[in-house]
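Ligand-bound model needed. adenosine-5'-triphosphate.
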Amino acid sequence: MNLDFTQIVSSIPYILQGIGVTLKIVGVAALIGFTIGILLALCKIGRFKGLKWFADIYTSIFRGTPLILQLLLIYYGTPQLFDIKVTAYTAAVLAFGFNSGAYISEIIRAGILAVDKGQLEASMALGIPYKKMMKDIVLPQALKNILPALMNEFITLTKESAIVTVIGVTDIMRRAYIVGGNTYRYFESLIFAGVIYYLMVIVLTLIGKAVERRMRRSD
Amino acid sequence: MIKIQDLRKSYGKVEVLKGISTTIQKGEIIAIIGPSGSGKSTFLRCINLLETPTSGHIWVNEAEVTNPKVNIMKVREQVGMVFQQFNLFPHMTVLENITYAPIMVKGTSKKDAELHGRELLKKVGLSEKEGEHPVRLSGGQKQRVAIARALAMSPEMMLFDEPTSALDPEMVKEVLEVIKSLALTGMTMAIVTHEMGFAREVADRVLFLDDGQLVEDAPPAEFFSSPKSKRAQDFLEKIL
Ligand SMILES: Nc1ncnc2c1ncn2[C@@H]1O[C@H](COP(=O)(O)OP(=O)(O)OP(=O)(O)O)[C@@H](O)[C@H]1O
Ligand SMILES: [Mg+2]
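Prediction:
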């Protein structure tokens, strides 16, 4: 067996810098995904048939096709349609944001529907307008139902973000791959990248648990 | 004043309200009684349009709530409702439950809303609970908060749908006391209840519903001692 982790030591800082890149993509994509998710969920439970259709079709398409295809379409396809240049980072953030928006909308929709109908009735009886009822009564309670699933989605996003490597974003994965190529130590550098991803997931899991505990305490 | 004219409600092919007409005068207290499934809740919930009537007309004061052009939100501000299952907002404290609607719907200042809220909490005997979340309260306490929450909007009338049916027996009294004290203030009230003693004592009129029809409409003394219809006689026989 030929294993020597010391060979990649000098490249460790370089790989570690990828954490920032990965986090930036995941963070911004999560924000976009969450926003899209809420809007789509509201469309799905709302009264307007047109919006409902749109949201359902959106979800169906983004869940029904490979993420990597969506990523490549945005990166290579958009410049062909419109006369604009899409950076790899932008393409990554958009693809992940749009994609997770579809999943998150389903999570939120289910969370909203799980809120007791009596809450809506009490709100209506008090004359609380729909928007305020959603924002202050329904969504805070729905959030509690959806937090675990949302955290899962976030973790998935962190791991799946590694596929941005294919469009040349220098995230953790790509850096490990480059270091592997330069030193002919693929195993060591990839294992190192794996450890970083794993630790990030563990940290996210712990944060999720802590937030959940906190929310449970508040009622 | 609430005026109801030939109110009908169907779910699919089943008609659960079969043409009900009555008027509730300002300051009147109405007890609505009848067997399970007779349409009492549906009747009550049509008044503030939690259920949409299939046909017929309802006026709350001057506003015809069954006219789609009328702003139902404005009407709901004047009609408080208390539910069997309390339906307090679990993520808010007791005081927040009470002040939310006045602040967000009526535009009352936070300070005034809290002042009024504390006054109401005192009235229902729960001053010391203002900072608690609803899960920490007993059923009777929850229902008293729910009553205070409805009163915080300073409604002109109150609808109660079996306010004590979800309570343990020992808590029924504290809630009925609060409703009774409210009756003394001249509040217009419609109360669906299975508490016959309470209905007899507090109500000005009893409406007896059976199978979606308003079978009797009489003062409690008359209704309980000499019900006219066979259906009311059978019902009273069963429960008294
Ligand atoms: N959303 C609904 N869909 C279909 N049927 C309904 C619905 N709500 C009520 N019903 C039916 O309408 C009828 C009247 O119901 P309602 O709840 O008004 O009765 P109730 O007199 O309040 O009974 P209870 O004393 O059990 O509360 C019942 O047969 C009930 O099954
Ligand atoms: Mg009922």
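The CA atoms of residues 20 and 188 of chain A lie 21 Å apart.
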